[in-house]
Structure formats: structure tokens, C-alpha cells
Amino acid sequence: MPASPRPSPEDRPGSPGDRPNPAGAPGYAFPARLWQALERHRPPGARAATEGWRSPLRGPWLTAVYGAALLVTLPLVIITGLLDYLAYGPQFGQAFPRDVGWLRLPPFDWPTRPSWLFRLTQGLHVTLGIMLIPVVLAKLWSVIPKLFDWPPARSVAQVLERLSLLLLVGGILFQIATGLLNIQYAYLFGFDFYTAHYFGAWVFTAALVAHVTLKLPRMVSALRSRPLAAELRTPRAGTRPEPPDPDGLVAPRPGPPTVSRRGAVALVGGGALLLGALTVGQTLDGPLRRTALLLPRGRDSGAGPNGFPVNRTAAAAGVQASETGPGWRLTVRGDGRTVTLDRDGLLALAQHTARLPIACVEGWSTRQSWTGVRLRDLAALVGVTDPSAAHVRSLERAGLFNQATLQANQVLDRDSLLALRVNGADLSADHGYPARIIVPALPGVHCTKWVASIEFRTRRDG
């Protein structure tokens, strides 16, 4: 089937500056001459590069399908990412980056219920972000001929649109690349991941809002141009190019199809589901952990009560066996009082057991049975019955997370513990022996291991 000729720039509607202004409006002459000069001086090979993309699948409809999928899912990735930032307690200066200027989120006390809240938000953020990689790449493939348009823009409005696209495409590729490296513990950035990921998310979000504002009407009309059900029933033999479009997405000289549009959609959707299946087990834990081939710490964490993943071992943290042996003491402070307890003294106090998840920023989580002393009972030992916060310090002397501040609701929750045992056995050295913090819905890095001291603060302390 012969393809209709691609409209020239002069024939495309809705592109200010493409055609001469008969009224000779002030300020128009110079931009018009600029676009015309650029049109006359094409770089070598520019036309060949543009016309070399010959897939008959490309067009507004397929681009709109991939765009609609991203429009539905990307906001969920953005929202869960911002919620995870709030879970770190930025009001205590312990979320990274600390100084975000006017991008600071409203103050918010992260809840302890449901206990799996952080497990859900971080698991969704990582798993969905990975699943969207094929969709993002397919969307870029569908519009890639536009990258070779010459001139790159034919009006000031198009220049601004191209700049927003640069931020949009560059932003999402940056977020994906750094996010993947982070969850695999491949710190190859040369800069702080947390800072770059946070500010990068805001740049991408702003570009996404601008792009959606500009393109939503065209996306809707493109989706309406071809019934989805009919398109998904069309085999390869019946696949035809779309009519030429104002944006030039349709190939000017399309070749024969090698796959149908339903095949292209199925390939991308299947790739997304496959990545999800290889990832989600690290969040759901249990038997599905064996399917989590993308799990950063591996699927086999050993056997026994302490056989579950860790991010940072005792050796990596520089915690020596001599520091956690019989001479270890926990210092508890509050309201002008100080109490020092050894591990036997802690075991002599009332013990509480809770089955709680522990979830990490890399997306993995696990649910275990923890036993220890309630934090609110330790607060009561030093006369603090209504704590405003608790500051926990670790034996680990270096690192971003060798201390943490807990909110009042996190200290007072019935299941918030200074854990001494897990699954009926003593904590292993890598899991924080002789004592570690466990709080419902708290990010794993703030469930401080190898605890050395806890200071319970009151509202009088400010």
C-alpha cells in the first residue's frame, strides 16, 4: 500500500513561525529568517537520518498508547518516592538531602500503622520503576525520528517545547540509571545518590507536567483515532501505516511491517511483567524470594533464625566483637536521669514479641518475629512517660545511618522494640547483636543496629 507523502513544514498546522507572516508583525522577521536559514543549511546526512526510520508502526496512536500507560503509572512512582523521603523524618534533618530549600515537603509524622506501610511504598516505587523501563524505551523508540528533525525547532514556542523534552527525557533516563545502580549497590556515580535522585525527581516532575499540559489534547485525539480493541485484533498482515500527521511521527516512506501493533504492545507489556516477576519477590518475601533474580543481596541469605538479608554487615560497619561482648552496655538517658544496662539486665525486663517487616530503600523487605523490650518501657525507666522523640546511637562510628531520631508515635507504639532476639534466637552480629531497633513502618536504615545509647527527649527539651 503506497504511503501518502509526509507534509512539508509549510503544510503542517499549528506550528507558529513555519510560514511567512503576511502582516509583517513586529519581531517576526528575525525568527522567520533564522528558521529559514537553518532549513537551507541542513547538516550532512540529516535528511537520510530522518527518512531512515521506516517502521510502519510509528504514529500518533502507538505513541499515545505508550504515553497513556506512563501517564497512569509515573505519578505513582513519583508519589511513592516522595512518601519514602518523608518516612526518613526530614524534620529531624536525617532525610537526604538535608537542605532542599523551597522544595521542602510539608511537615509530616510518618505513621507506624499499618506496619507494612514503608514496605508497600518503597516496594511499589522500586518494582514499578523497574517495570516501566520497557515502556519508557518503547515510547522513546516511537518518537525517535523527531530527534533528527531539521531545523530542531521552527518557532520560539517549539524551542521551549524542545527544552522541556530535553529535561523530560534526560530526567527519566537519569532517574532510571541511577536508581538501578543504587539498588544493585553499584555506586559508580561520583556524587551523592540521594541528593541527585531527589532533585532529579523534581526536575523530571516539572518537565512531565509541562509535557502533559502541551500534549494531552493530542494524546486523547490520537487514542480516539483508532479503536483499541480493533487494533489489538489486527494481525501483522493487516497492519497499515497511519495517515501523515502534523508532528511527523509517521514514516515518510514506511517499509513492510515485521510485527503488528498488537505485537508491539504485547512485547512491551510482556517485558514489563517479566521484570516485575523477577523483582517483586524481594518485596513480598517468603517463597517468592526464590523468583527475585534481581534481588540485590541474592536469594540465599543462609539458614536458621537469622537467615534473612542484611545491607551492612558488622565487619563492613567496623563493629568489633570486643565491643559487643560481655562488656557491652546500653546507656539510656532522659529527664535528667541515666540508666546503664547490660544484656542480661535487658533480658530481665518485660519482653514483648512482634512480627514486623523490615524494608530497605533498595526495595527488598522481609517479615520476621522480633523479641525485646518496648521502647516506651525503656523511656519509663528514666522517668519519661510522654516522650517527644528518641535519639538512638550505634556502636558504628561512621556512615550516614549510625544514628537515628524516632518520632513520638514511633517510640510509643506497642510494637516498637529494642530487639534482642529474632525468631526465637539471639540476634547475629550482622543483624545487630547485642541489640537493635525495630519500629513498625520505619525504613530499615533507621532500625539502628548495635545500639550503644538511647536518649528520650521531652517537649521541654525542645
TrEMBL record:
Residues 1-26, 231-256 are annotated as: Disordered. This is Oxidoreductase molybdopterin-binding domain-containing protein. Keywords: Membrane, Transmembrane, Transmembrane helix. GO terms for molecular function: oxidoreductase activity. Residues 327-459 form the Oxidoreductase molybdopterin-binding domain. The chain crosses the membrane at residues 64-88, 123-144, 165-187, 193-214. InterPro entries: Mopterin_OxRdtase_euk (IPR008335), OxRdtase_Mopterin-bd_dom (IPR000572), OxRdtase_Mopterin-bd_sf (IPR036374). PANTHER family: BLL0505 PROTEIN (PTHR43032:SF2), PROTEIN-METHIONINE-SULFOXIDE REDUCTASE (PTHR43032). The keyword Nucleus does not apply. It comes from the Bacteria.
